[in-house]
Q: What sequence folds into this?
């Protein structure tokens, strides 16, 4: 049986122009990396939207895996701007192999 | 005016825009993949930049070019002031949103300009090649004045300031427009001949499909919109008329030919919906895209394409007098 | 017939399709990004719509157009009945899947039509411009009769019915084809001249790359398929021959010229693999796409492109007699 | 330390033409929003597939964050059609900030 | 209340040319299926990257749902190549309906 | 040489590449959607394959073609040996990475070739049509010798071997290049005429936008790179000069005309950054893409486009003597 350790997985949905704000916060929290996934459409309190890369009003999903401690640092850094920047953050425990990486 | 207005509505370019509006309003699922739309917008900017540069390589640079550039920069800087006052007063927006919207109206829409140039050519009133440089020059000053208006004295974290300026001045469309303009100037007519089947012959067709997409996007946005009041609708229609008329007066005053004057009017009348929204999302994340994008993209843009280009062309012809009609 | 059949196999358009089939069969990783493929299909529909509209603007509308439209609509409605009987009887499909497949064979394939038109032009037998309108008219009636066949009496939730009808009649390809057709009629030959370098000159080249992609997709699908029996394979080949022959007879009977008759035969012979599958996925989610898409896309489509277009053209020429050969 | 609350995250893989069936169910369950991600290829009991936007036989991933109660309402609404519509549904607990939104 | 069962969800980030190595391992572990999502950009110890489909240096995210037992088989199969192939693997428990499928 | 070197820098094709490099260096956010870039690369390969095939259909096959193909295959096999020795010795790479990089330098870059052909045509030194077949033939042998070098005796799991070979020989660009070449030969000049507005007229324009993107990608990669030493940089510049000169000597020796000789030199000088990296990622996952991709794409590719094509053309002209200048 492979040994696994528990880490936090955090996913943040953000407007594409704001992705760099989020990834900067990730880097500053000392997390080793992040990955950005494209998003196609969605709906929320502000109504529905579709990807519109031309007008820059599309969204992206940023995912990062971090230790409990760094994950907390990141969520504390982002909490004040979650509402103002319209970010959606979810966080849960995952098992990873080679836990020393994160 | 009658003639050019009619020509507007039989041009495939404008008809495809109307088809896009229509398809969205009847809730058809017609959609252009966003990678294609983005590719077409890059193509249009490269093509218009190249053509402008080649035209300048042929005609040479005159003092008029410098004057036009200066007029454009000043207009882009100052037009947001007028907009801001109207948006806060009549439009009842708060400082933040008024500043964000104002930035859009000071800046320009490349596609509105391109469509105007096509329509002007149909009317035998071509705009000068250097107007592309004016277009590029007008994109960004408005972003700065809009931000100053929105933030008042406190311009936030100093650290981000330089970063922001760099991004504003090196944003994709400015770099591509000016880069292609420079390439056109260096390559000249003979170098352009090699690539003209792609950049020249295909241009109007691509513009048709791009406007089809813009029609779809503009109409879908306004149908989903929840933040637009009748006051803002009025502003989104009257402000471009006012700004455009101002532009025509300035263009005539500095001695532009009729086509270029009309094109300058259109630049002043048009509102950005590509470069400025992205900058605002980053610099003023609290401002509501539901307000600024919907106004510029879903109201002002169609109004300019369908009506205002015709109006401003007629106005430019009228004040130029009979002599100016066929320069 | 020999000549046109040979021409089929030296036309780059058809050769690229064969290259696509080949590349997929040898498991090459050649693939066209789906955004590009989607963009090309929109381009082809806009172009063919425009050209049809311009042709009608030139030739004017005659009673024949109305007759052809009516014949198309009736054919699209009724062809699924024949298909349904054969699919349930010989094909051993259940009611649901037989209805779903039948809808595909009543409707049409835009790319099959476009390829046929190219091949007919090589044979100096151009199809009339208004056939594009017939194409658009034939897309959707078959969806309705297919659904009625699949569902029998109980047409499910009433609430969804209107919604479904709206979607069927305003689906992307119908809106784009008819919209571009209308634009072609309004803009006329002079308006079209502006955009013809894009929509006319580029047409065959885009069709080459699009057929390359369709070849890849068709062959990959059949290689992965697990639901196709020999009985269904036979139907997917013989039904288009039968439907096509019927179409040629009807086309001749209502007085179409030879090219248009052959084109009408191709419309009847072709099976939809864009609009109808999407509609079926939504309206009959329990039906198996592994059956209907594989039959229409991976068997009937290549058979039509490679063989049946040639057969139907020869048949149309034969029954028209020597007088009809060069109208 | 930022306060977080537990919500359900539900992800549903569906054929693209069926996305609106799923999002309608989400809206009807009273959930505040949803987000759609593109999917490239896959393999299941019916064999492998690749994105084929032209023939509409591509898939999408719909993700939504909801309270336990609404998540149950949604999964009850979707359960009867999971098999017939070929949907794949997974659901797990996540921490969110600003839990009152969901 | 709909009955749900617990399964493992495994997500693996891999260079696109290596996706087939991962999906082969999934098939060999006896898992019923997998789904591939596109990825846009990222950053790790080797620096940042953007999708570059032309040079094939883009990444993809492979997700699969499996029983505990098969998930272990898969992670054991992948563990030796995680570092050499630069894979990022996370794994967590999810609830699924129709658990007999996985 | 002066003339062709100058022509290089006034050609829009090269200028757009420079614009891409510049935009990335100033950190502009200009970017071309990857679906569009991929689509353009497929277009370029289809177009160049077609044109080569048509040229061969016109000129017929001669023994020279077979000799050139053989020379290309041998060069692709053997050039990695030289590269490997230099990379391990002077470059201080380990066996694995030296083998991986060597494979890149034995193989070819389609876009470098295409750009060279455009520049050669400007200099009235067209390359023969069959050189496209040589290009396709040179893509894969280097992959095999690179792998043998990297793995030494132990070639790993036998089972994967056949699979790997199949993939190498049926990779997308080989299939598309040779497929389009065959289509060009079958369709001939008359068949090509139908599609030449798309594949011929649009070619240089597409190449402009594609090189814009390659400039962006090449510059961004080197700015983010952490694994490139000065020793590797020197190799990435001098190796293409050496390989290219060798190619020019061989081309002259086997009797190619000046244009084709220069083109053969460019093929030897160019390094793959599409087919080979993908093959290496799969076959040698432990090798570092940060080394092989950065060397081939970010150093050798720009060096070839901006300087080496001009150098090799001048060298080919020089050793051909005055008689060879205008064949
Ligand atoms: N902590 C992390 N969270 C999410 N993604 C990561 C993380 N670390 C690395 N990655 C992704 O894995 C890729 C390779 O990482 P590396 O091997 O560290 O260069 C990066 O480019 C990211 O896309
Ligand atoms: N409950 C939710 N689950 C998943 N995505 C959501 C949810 N609520 C909002 N979103 C996403 O976040 C975006 C912005 O939401 P809002 O700020 O509520 O307009 C929406 O367009 C959705 O893409
Ligand atoms: N165990 C699984 N894990 C992840 N995705 C799956 C799994 N099984 C099926 N899928 C996805 O669901 C689609 C349909 O599956 P199926 O209904 O089994 O053919 C497949 O093509 C995959 O994309
Ligand atoms: Na303006
Ligand atoms: Na039919
Ligand atoms: Na080489």
A:
């Amino acid at each position: 049986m492979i040994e696994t350790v528990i880490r936090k997985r955090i996913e943040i949905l953000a407007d594409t122009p704001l992705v760099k704000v989020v990834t900067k916060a990730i880097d500053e929290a000392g997390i080793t990396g992040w990955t950005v996934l494209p998003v196609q459409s969605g709906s929320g309190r502000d109504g529905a939207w579709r990807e519109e890369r031309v007008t820059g009003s599309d969204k992206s999903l940023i995912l990062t895996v971090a230790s409990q401690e760094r994950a907390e640092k990141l969520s504390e850094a982002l909490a004040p701007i979650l509402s103002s920047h319209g970010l959606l953050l979810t966080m849960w425990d995952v098992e990873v192999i080679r836990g020393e990486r994160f | 005016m009658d003639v050019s207005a009619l020509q507007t509505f039989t041009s495939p370019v404008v008809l495809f825009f109307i088809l896009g509006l229509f398809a969205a309003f009847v809730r058809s699922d017609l959609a252009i993949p966003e990678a294609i739309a983005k590719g077409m917008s890059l193509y249009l900017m490269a093509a218009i930049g190249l053509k402008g540069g080649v035209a300048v390589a042929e005609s040479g640079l005159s003092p008029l070019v410098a004057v036009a550039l200066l007029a454009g920069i000043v207009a882009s800087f100052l037009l947001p002031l007028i907009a801001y006052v109207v948006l806060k007063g009549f439009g009842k927006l708060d400082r933040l949103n008024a500043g964000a919207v104002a930035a859009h109206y000071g800046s320009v829409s490349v596609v509105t300009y391109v469509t105007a140039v096509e329509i002007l050519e149909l009317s035998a009133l071509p705009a000068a090649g250097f107007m592309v440089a004016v277009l590029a020059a007008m994109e960004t000053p408005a972003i700065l004045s809009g931000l100053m208006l929105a933030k008042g004295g406190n311009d936030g974290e100093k650290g981000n300031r330089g970063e922001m300026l760099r991004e504003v001045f090196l944003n994709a469309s400015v770099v591509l427009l000016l880069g292609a303009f420079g390439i056109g100037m260096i390559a000249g007519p003979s170098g352009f001949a090699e690539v003209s089947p792609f950049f020249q012959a295909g241009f109007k067709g691509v513009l048709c499909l791009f406007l089809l997409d813009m029609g779809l996007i503009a109409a879908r946005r306004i149908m989903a919109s929840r933040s637009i009041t009748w006051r803002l609708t009025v502003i989104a229609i009257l402000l471009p008329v006012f700004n455009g008329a101002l532009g025509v007066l300035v263009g005539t005053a500095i001695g532009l030919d009729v086509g270029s004057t009309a094109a300058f009017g259109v630049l002043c009348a048009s509102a950005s919906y590509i470069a400025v929204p992205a900058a605002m999302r980053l610099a003023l994340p609290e401002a509501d895209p539901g307000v600024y994008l919907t106004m510029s993209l879903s109201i002002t843009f169609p109004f300019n394409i369908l009506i205002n280009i015709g109006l401003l062309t007629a106005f430019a012809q009228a004040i130029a007098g009979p002599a100016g009609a066929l320069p």
Residues 68-82 of chain E form the longest helix (15 residues).
